[in-house]
Amino acid sequence: MERLRIGLLIPPPNVLMEPEFREIVPPHITIHATRISRSTDKVTVDSLLEMERNTEEAARVLAMARPNVIIFGCTSGSLIMGVGWDRQIVEKIATVTPIPAITTSTAVVEALKSLNAKKIAVFTPYIEEINERETGFLEGNGFQVLTISGLGISESLKIAQVPISEVHRLSLQTDKKEADALFISCTNFPTIGIIDRLERELGKPVVTSNQASAWYALKRMGRKEQIRGFGSLFEK
Prior knowledge:
Elements: E1 4-10, H1 17-24, E2 29-35, H2 45-53, H3 55-62, E3 69-72, H4 85-94, E4 101-103, H5 104-114, E5 119-124, H6 128-140, E6 144-150, H7 156-160, H8 164-174, E7 181-184, H9 195-202, E8 206-208, H10 209-220
Parallel strand pairs: 1-2, 1-3, 3-4, 5-6, 5-7, 7-8
């Protein structure tokens, strides 16, 4: 079977996107990550913009591994300046490599559209300022955000350390009955082990940043592997 590679551009403190991707994708697809330089471990508007300025250099380095697709793997960083910011990041990557590129926020939008979700509930680990910008991005892409709930955490490693049992409990609290889907944001937030369970309990699709990123990367690569255990998104 052909060996394929997915390249990840991720924030320096991100410790979950790589292992969660390895759980999702088939073993013949390998994961290769480069961290985008920034001067702090905190998730703030300034630190996300600093990452954007360093994207080209990180992409140039990652491209040497010759991945089949490159993912800018930061949800907030790929939407922080509003509608179209994700496309601008992809255009920056295209200036240094012809390898196809996507961003996590693009993947989330495509995932929600594929599930015919129009009204959504959103759960994040972010501070309020990031949540406000995320709401603007999602609504600018045609979704009605019924509610968005954040944990107010700015330190990236603390986001990764939130117990998955707490993510599950608070996701259930965040959901709205009239929402078409629940979106759990952030590539450094533990979610992979609870997607199927949440879907059964809520009776609706659940989209997460890493799940959507993997799904859209595989789609862009033209892959149609049967993947079970990570939500109804992969059944589409």
